[in-house]
Amino acid sequence: MAADQGGSGEGAADPPPEEGQVLMNDRSDGAGLRQNAPASQLDRLRARPAVSQPPALPAQPSGRLPQLVREVLDGMAAVYDVDGDDLVGAWENGIFDFSVLPDDEGRAEVLQVHGSWERMLPDQRFKEAVLFANEWNAEHVWPKVFVLPDDEGWLGLHGEFTADLGAEPDVDRVELAVNTGIIASLAVFDAAEVTFPDARLLGGDDLDETE
């Protein structure tokens, strides 16, 4: 007698899953494994072997920035001195030094142009000087303006412009950064002369006088 195909006894074996199909646990009716379910896109992605990508190597700075700054200053026929790793020169009513700063990630050459106003203010003018700096910073992108006292208590007005020139700066980008740093700080110092006409010349004999 033929076996009952619909009974619980031995019957015909279930066909094997076709290619591209996976066995999935059918939790809707508790019947166990459900065959012939098509593989989802996520299943196919999981089945692929992982491909490891080599980490990107950081660009190494060329180390040419100090020499490029010298080339730019020489091209301007600027008079400057070498102070350690910095170059220092004077333009109009400001004194400027050019520094190469370390990049935290070691991937770029960073140039800072720092300008100091040639005049000083007595410490009694601190609030006025800070107000001047804050108003400038609120209205302009650069330079960053701030006030610093010297060892004798006289107040100096400073401007800083910092430029990330990438791993391989060229002379054109360095020239643009140098000119921007100088011109931006000179604009600050010109405005300061209008705001503080009684400021004293830096290094002048009258700095020793009591205000």
TrEMBL record:
Residues 1-10 have a biased composition (Gly residues). InterPro entries: Put_sensory_transdc_reg_YbjN. Pfam families: YbjN. Residues 1-63 are annotated as: Disordered. This is YbjN domain-containing protein.
